[in-house]
Write the structure tokens for this entry.
Amino acid sequence: MVPHQIAVLALDGVVGYDLGTPPQVFHAARKSDDDRFYDVRVCSAGPIHSTAGFTVIPDHGLEALEDAGTVLVPGVGTGGPVTDGTIPPEIKEALLAAAARGARIVSICTGASVLAAAGLLDGRTAATHWAWAGRISRLYPRVNWNFDVLFVDDGDILTSAGVGAGVDLCLHIVRSDHGAEAANRAARRCVVPAVREGGQAQYIERPVPASAGAGTAPTRAWALDRLAEPVSLEEMAGHARMSVRTFTRRFREETGMSPRQWLLRERVAHAQLLLESTDLGVDAVARRSGLGSATALRQHLQATIGVAPSAYRRTFRNSAFRHPVQSGS
């Protein structure tokens, strides 16, 4: 197997955390210790300074972009992309050339400003860190910015919110390329959640009332153990020993979504994993994931990722990750 080549393009003023995220996550995605899915190469136009107080001398120059299947731009904390909407001509030329030949283009945090300065985001929906919303919106008004989500997958261009959301996006790419089990294994190697709940709206600075008692995390864990069962909002609130109103408010504060939205998302995610890793029929997958029927599973999977269960299974099934299960429901 030939690893997919990823070129991480670092500019002067690069955010240190963002620069280290792609090699860490993508190198953790592998079939075995000696069989990695990705080959990650950090490149730049020369030595660069990071916002963390150290200088970076990448092993590769801009020529690394020429053969890369994915080009990823980490965040920048200083310089033209976030001050006056400009980037060096050679950077713009390299990005446009990569996009023109069909490379997947990705950014973390304010790396989206680099893509926007190159004109790659005009008319598209994109994400970046909520704290840069005012400045980024003024610099790049042709972009449909979404400052509430952790990342945006717009097909050939993917963008994420700040810092930790870069991990979410990298795992999403692994999941899209190789399935949920590969992403889960990479997440376990990195000791991070495979899927983080909610959007970045939950991290925006705002007054939050003092918490009284435990949060909703124990109830979420309780519900995850009962995905195949009909768990009601009243039962979840009762488990948390809260009124339905208080539970719903606290749940939204902690996850960025309602209990019903969260439960549906978890059931769809579990159905995806069962489709990838078991021989269960569609009806059994629907029952085990709590979606009830094959019709409901098809509807929710179509609404979530735009494909039918059979198509999803054909695309993401990987014999290396199959688990033996009983054929019953």
User: Anything to note?
Assistant: Residues 71 and 194 are 22 Å apart (CA to CA). The chain has a mean pLDDT of 87. Residues 259-277 form the longest helix (19 residues).
